[in-house]
Amino acid sequence: MSLQIFNTETGSKEIFKSIDENKVGIYVCGMTVYDFCHIGHARVMVVFDTIVRHLRNLGYEVNYVRNITDIDDRIINRALENKEDIQTLTARFIDAMHEDEKALNVLCPDEEPRATDNIQEIEVMITKLVDKGHAYQADNGDVYFSVKSANEYGRLSGKNVDELDAGARVEINVAKKDPLDFVLWKSAKANEPAWNSAWGNGRPGWHIECSAMATKCLGNHFDIHGGGMDLTFPHHENEIVQSECATGEKFVNTWIHCGFVRIDDEKMSKSLGNFFTIGEVIKKYHPEVIRYFLLASHYRSPVNYSTENLDLAKASISRLYSALELVKPREECIENSIFEKQFIVAMNDDFNTPQALSVLFELAKEVNKTNSKGLATLLKKLANQIGLLEQEATIFFKSQPSNSKFTEHKILSLIAERAEARKNKKFSRSDEIRDELLKNKIELLDSSEGTSWRRT
RNA sequence: GGUGGAAUAGCAAAGUGGCUAUGCAGUGGAUUGCAAAUCCAUCUACCUCGGUUCGACUCCGGGUUCCACCUCCA
């Protein structure tokens, strides 16, 4: 069965066919680097990382481009608040973002273009739009895209231009000829960072940078464009209209949008204070637990962040790792099994990771039952395809975030003492040691080969 | 108001016109000095009202509730 992807533009699953036989170009809207990444950003990172991994597993040569927005009103404001210069601020958050990605086992995009490195490309595109009569410079110096100059607008988000017009927020912006028009180039105010251009000193608007960088890296017409659902309108709609007006070609074949993260069934927002950064969550949950949590729901569904759900994710991934702890995956992998086939079918069905995970659980059960190292190797191999189970099981269990003061050395000495007590049938002492460790969230597992431990 | 999406067992979450999803939790058993892990068995489902059908949780229509976007947002 071939890969099917839900395309936002058509609202249905479509059989995926790349423009070039074995190559896929994919562009994902990345972060605006004025703050730490939160769990919603984590979802975009993990979801598209998983999508790219699967495309590669299918044999495609993928060019994965994810931009960094490093110039924007929020960045300027934040730098002003912090009394630091913009480069220092953005460099700091870009580093933090890369740290987060590494923790979540998100592979680096092939290209990570930054808006400020592509001002020239942006200028060229705006010039084309002005020359073709799709953009104009207003009295305030800003350059706007004229939405009504385009043949069509709204096909991605299903918006109707007339309805939009009627419902447009009343905004006092006399410079725009039409409230729907959006800015391509913002003229600089005093003390704002600016680049010289045909329209005077200024900086790019938000939407145009993605059009310029995407077409630069992937060509005028490419396979997949993605991002969070909230970008569908207006950001991606605007990207389509300005790109197609500038190039005269179709912009993107398949649009992929991932759903939101909610927190305790409330909309995540800073004003409500229910906003968690990746860094914060990693202190409480192993990053692989977070990755599992994000993949345990389909990428288009909303996902609810809560300690209950993170705990569930932890229990689930622990079950998979338990199988690999019991049966070490060090053998030739079993090929062409029903498990592998089902796994691929699930992933080919619009990247159905929950379904794929259920196959892994069935496989884990089989590993536990049969002690087959070949099946354990298969379990690891399939899980690796979605960025899971890459570490040693024992390391996973021992590296759970913990407040416990018990060092490994201390734990091992207690285990030794307990072994001695058990040998002498002093079970009250051995149970005492187990209870003490358990209070510190350390669990002991006895087997014929001795006693192992894990943090819970 | 407009547009789009969703309602599945205690919790989470897939899926299918008739056949156990899956994970966690619960119950009974095996195993264990006791546990844990593991295995076996097992209890809880498909918002509501109609329709189509031999048969619908699955298709169609009406309702109810919820969510997102329409403004910066992943």
Structural class: alpha/beta
Mean pLDDT: 94
How does the major sheet shape up? 4 strands, parallel
Radius of gyration: 26 Å
Could you state the CATH homologous superfamily of the largest domain?
HUPs
Q: What percent of the residues sit in helical stretches (DSSP H or I)? A: 40-55%
How many structural domains in the coordinates? 3
Q: Output the number of helix runs.
A: 16
Unreliable segments (pLDDT under 50, ≥5 consecutive)?
Answer: none
Strand share of the residues?
Answer: 5-15%
List key phrases describing it.
456 residues, alpha/beta, Four Helix Bundle (Hemerythrin (Met), subunit A), 3 domains, 4-stranded parallel sheet, 14 strands, RNA-binding
Task: Give the arrangement of secondary structure elements.
Blueprint lengths: L3 E4 L4 E4 L7 E6 L10 H19 L3 E6 L6 H10 L3 H18 L15 H13 L3 E3 L5 E3 L15 H7 L14 E6 L14 E3 L1 H13 L3 E7 L3 H16 L4 E7 L2 E3 L14 H7 L2 H9 L7 E3 L1 H20 L11 H11 L4 H18 L2 H12 L8 H6 L9 H16 L3 H13 L2 E6 L2 E6 L1
Parallel strand pairs: 3-4, 3-9, 9-10, 11-12
Antiparallel strand pairs: 1-2, 5-6, 6-7, 7-8, 13-14
The protein binds one RNA strand of 74 nucleotides through helix 1, helix 5, helix 7, helix 10 and helix 12.
